[in-house]
Amino acid sequence: MKLESLKDLYLEQLKDLYSAETQLVEALPKMAEAASARDLRQGFNEHLRQTQEHVRRLERIFQDLGDSPKGHTCEGMKGLVKEGEEMIKMRGEPSVIDAGLIAAAQRVEHYEIAGYGTVRTYAELLGRSEHVALLEKTLQEEEDTDEKLTQLAESHVNEEALVR
Ligand SMILES: [Fe+2]
Ligand SMILES: [Fe+2]
Q1: Phi first, then psi: what are they for 70, rounded to 5°?
Q2: pLDDT band per the 50, 70, 90 thresholds, residue 1
Q3: What pTM value is reported for the model?
Q4: Nearest ligand, CA of residue 19?
Q5: Residue partners of 120: CB distance under 8 A and separation at least 6
Q6: Would you say residue 43 has pLDDT above 90?
Q7: Cα of 128 to ligand 1 centre, how many Å?
Q8: Using CA atoms, how far apart are residues 158 and 64, in angstroms rounded to an integer?
Q9: Most-buried pick from 49, 55, 93, 128 (CB within 10 A)?
Q10: Cα(77) to centroid(ligand 1), Å
Q11: In angstroms, what is the span from residue 120 Cα to ligand 1's centroid?
Q12: Model confidence at 101, in pLDDT bands (50, 70, 90)?
């Protein structure tokens, strides 16, 4: 892929995000299954539904651009998912593992927040206001998810891990 313009880079970054989101659609059910706390499991399942919508929003953008989202692998997300899988395989105290799952999931959300902030800004510069609206929605959901994970950790999960 040749990068000759900001639009080329926009497309490249969108493909990276598409790969990241599709990897997460596979990973989140496993994270949910590994979680012991009911609210954490529900949180992962809720974010799975949002993530499926994130994939659809990106597909709409690609359709509008007349391009295919496929053919690129997000290596960053591959690494983050691998770290999440390592946590899933851990044995030990359920509350400690839950705290570890939150730690892994928040890395994922921060990674996505960085990516969506970038493409949102590119979409603004390129005058793609419909894309800006879609990307903003997803960015907001990633930020809300990160905040919810912090709340879960601070409201009880960390405390339960501490008293083990
Ligand atoms: Fe997402
Ligand atoms: Fe996310």
Answers
A1: -90, 175
A2: confident
A3: 0.96
A4: 1
A5: 132, 135, 136, 139
A6: yes
A7: 20
A8: 44
A9: 128
A10: 11
A11: 14
A12: very high
